[in-house]
Amino acid sequence: MGLRKAFVLITAGIVFLGLIAMKIIAAYPASTSIEASGPVFGSAPIEVVIFEDLRCAGCRTFSQTVLPQIEAEYLDTNRIQLKIIPLGVLKGSKILANAALAVYQLAPDRFLPFVQLIFARFAYGKIDNSTTQVLLNLAKEAGGIDLLKLQEAIDQQRYYPVLDRNLADARALMGKQFRIPAVYVNRVRVVGVDWQAVEQAIDEAIQ
Question: 139: which residues sit within 8 A by CB, 6+ positions away?
Fold first, then answer.
């Protein structure tokens, strides 16, 4: 009788764990196509994609703490390709993402420093009539960016259509699990955005 009860309990436990696994898989598809557009760095076969909003406090934390470790451990050592997809989710963030995409087109190597400056200034700051001038000042601080061409891109809202498509693609990709920041490694979503989770996912992909 005792053995039978034990067998039933073990079987029930296995079924329960299986159901949990199925829910996790449903929430985070094993492999999916990422259509959204964004700056790309590196050319390794392992692709790391980051979705972010430049007014998102969580994205700011990720960009200031986890992203530098990704760069140092994997991008600078040519083990990954890094793709960053700016989104215009939060109110006022479109002008920031538009400027970031413009900087990538004008001076790709200044994109990451420029974005770090945006996070430091705007993650908690307001968007107002001075925003364009602030962005130009940040671009000047980042260095190596044509300020006249950047202002033209800001004034023309040049990359707003790209941002609209990115947001639509991101919502379609994540569905009910839409949240930012979001990290994908080889089209598989990382469960968690802390360094340990991201590092584990990249290492597993590399192996």
Answer: 99, 103, 110, 114, 145, 147, 150
CATH number, domain containing residue 79: 3.40.30.10
Cα–Cα distance list, 6 to 3, 20, 24, 92, 147 (Å): 5, 21, 27, 59, 72
Residue 37 has pLDDT above 60, yes or no: yes
CB 194 within 8 A of CB 66: yes
The 3-state DSSP class for residue 95 equals helix
Domain count of the chain? Answer: 1
- Map tokens 């001076």 to a residue: 107
Across the chain, mean pLDDT equals: 88
Q: pLDDT category, 10, cuts 50, 70, 90?
A: low
Residue 15 resides in a domain: no
Q: Which of 94, 52, 96 is nearest to 184 (CA)?
A: 52
Q: Is residue 119 part of a domain?
A: yes
Beta strands in 11-145 (DSSP E): 40-41, 47-53, 81-87
In a domain, 155, yes or no: yes
- Over the stretch 114-148, which tens digit does the pLDDT of each residue have? 999 999 999 777 899 999 999 999 999 999 999 99
Domain with 125, as residue range(s), is 40-206
Rounded mean pLDDT, 164-175 = 96
pTM of the model: 0.83
* 8 A C-beta contact, residue 37 and residue 85: yes
| 47 domain residue, yes or no | yes
Dihedral angle at the C-alpha atoms of 25, 28, 29, 34, nearest 10 degrees?
-170
